[in-house]
Amino acid sequence: MTTKHIKGVGAAPGLSIGHAVWWRKVSPHVEEQSVTDTDEEIKRLAASVAEAKEQITQLRETTRKRMGEEEAGIFDAHLAFLEDPAYIGEMENRIRDVKKNATFICQQVTEELSQMMASLEDEYMKARADDIRDVGERLLLLLTGVKPFDPSLLQPGSIVVAKELVPSDTAQFPKGIAGMVTARGSKTAHAAIMARTLGIPAVLGLSDSIEEIRNGDTVIMNGHEGTITVNPSPEAEEKARLAIQQQQALREEALGKADQDAFTANGDRIQVFANIGSLKDVQTALDHKAEGVGLFRTEFLYLENDHWPTEEEQYETYKKVLDSFGDKPVVIRTLDIGGDKDLPYADLPEEENPFLGHRAIRFCLANPDIFKVQLRALLRASIHGNLWIMLPMVENVAEIRKAKDLLTQCRQELSSEGVTTGEVQIGIMVEIPAAALIADRLAKEVDFMSIGTNDLTQYTLAADRGNEHVAHLYDPVHPAVLQLVRLTCDAARKEGIVAGMCGELAGDPEMTEILIGLGLQELSMSAGTIPEVKENIRKVQSDQARIQADRVLEMESAEEVRQWVANSPTS
Ligand code: PEP
Ligand code: MG
């Protein structure tokens, strides 16, 4: 058997080896037929809708148990479609009007609605187009009685190979799947998020090369590099097995030492924090021994509600997080809305380029009444712990001063109402190249700066972070991005304030040495990678790291940086 090497997008890290199993979508053959008894067709449709609801509710429950409420919530959109008059109601009306069979009408309405949604600019609606296709496929299988793909064909150790995977597919994976490989999808696709939550490697975006993989082929995956090897030589297979064993042993060792603070080999303290997206993530952060929270994305409070969250609702949430971390720092980021995060009740204007638009701090400063509710809630919560308030998408000094003025106003209002407030640190995210370039001036206004490499990368490299077509260009280790990191760290050091990083790059264990060499003192990441990053910090010699960082800053491309760090003894 010939060995094949295929390159895709590394969407969830990890090394694994297993046998390929194709997840083939079954598409029933649909024929257009005339019917006389339309009531009977509508009854058939209703029975399928009821069965679909039952199946989806079960999937929701399995997903909730395995991956948590947030991932399970994806299925709420599916259930809502099955209640939607614009979808199911439209099918019923059309069966009556045109007297055609339910299967044909279901296919027609699903196609029309999903195409309409996919054509909208709004990322949220685009994602709903995939959801409706998923629901439509389920209904068609039920209406035709065709059996769907049988998930029991997957065994522990299987590597799932598919054109595309949607949440209702991944929810059916049995325990012990070794990895997933798909033709479509990017790092931010649902499948990628699910893979990271399940802790299995994923390589997505393989395009047509995926057809070179056959059922039963032995596959080695590197979810970090985005590479797969099909039918490796016995030597390569043996080497991969050894590397997997070592990786496992290192992970266990790192977890055993995770509750010790991380110091470099020469004694510099590097703080390792967790990024959290909601209260549900607090326990995982504590379990992985986070030394604080480096980024609490408060968007969920707004996105999960159908109204602007009240001061009281917000206060309760912030208080709970602060209580959980005692005197450890908790960085709470103020509302980062706009861009790809839409709020239906906010009535945000349509924008040609939402990522370059009216988002985050820009929106908050333009809507002080909304912003002040959050600032008041934060100030009230500040007495419960060590609160650091962080402003997203800052681009100039005036924005910081305006936000600080509003904060002072809120503090005075609360004081005149007899409400006690505590000390807070004020900081900014550096995620726009302009902010990094004038970091020396911004640093004078704040207590800390945290680099958001997810946005900083997309703005520096002009590569949309969610677009699979430019995913090959989007890499935070590009020397241009690293140069902006260095500038920010230098500015922070001169002002004697903390320079941290909370973008995904902070949690890339291969880059720990370089990040320390660039001058970062705090790294914040998904909780799962904390033990490994702490372990890597312990191997770093700061002087040596500085030399390594200087060297990568001179390199020509992200690939060159990646190759260099992969061969470095501490990676
Ligand atoms: C970032 O941009 O790096 C960041 C941490 O913020 P978000 O991913 O929420 O935009
Ligand atoms: Mg950002």
What would you note in describing this structure?
The protein has 571 residues and is an alpha/beta fold. It folds into three domains: 4-25 and 150-249, Phosphohistidine domain (Glucose Oxidase, domain 1, 3-Layer(bba) Sandwich), CATH 3.50.30; 38-144, PtsI, HPr-binding domain (Enzyme I, Chain A, domain 2); 258-567, TIM Barrel, CATH 3.20.20. The protein has 23 helices and 16 strands. The chain has helices at residues 38-67, 69-72, 74-81, 85-98, 102-118, 123-144, 167-170, 190-198, 234-257, 282-287, 299-303, 311-325, 360-366, 368-381, 397-416, 433-437, 439-443, 453-461, 479-495, 512-518, 530-539, 542-553, 558-566; strands at 4-7, 9-12, 15-22, 158-162, 179-182, 202-204, 218-222, 227-230, 271-276, 293-297, 329-333, 386-391, 425-430, 448-451, 498-501, 522-525. Strands 1-8-7-3-4-5-6-2 form an eight-stranded mixed β-sheet. An eight-stranded parallel β-barrel has the order 9-10-11-12-13-14-15-16, surrounded by four helices. Helix 7 links the parallel strand 4 (158-162) and strand 5 (179-182). Helix 4 crosses helix 5 and helix 14 packs across helix 15. It is globular and about 80 Å long. The protein binds phosphoenolpyruvate and magnesium ion. Magnesium ion (MG) binds next to helix 18. Residues 258-541 form the PEP-utilising enzyme C-terminal domain. InterPro entries: PEP-util_enz_mobile_dom, PEP-utilizing_PTS_enzyme, PEP_util_C, PEP_util_CS, Phosphohistidine_dom_sf, PTS_EI, PTS_EI-like, PTS_EIN.
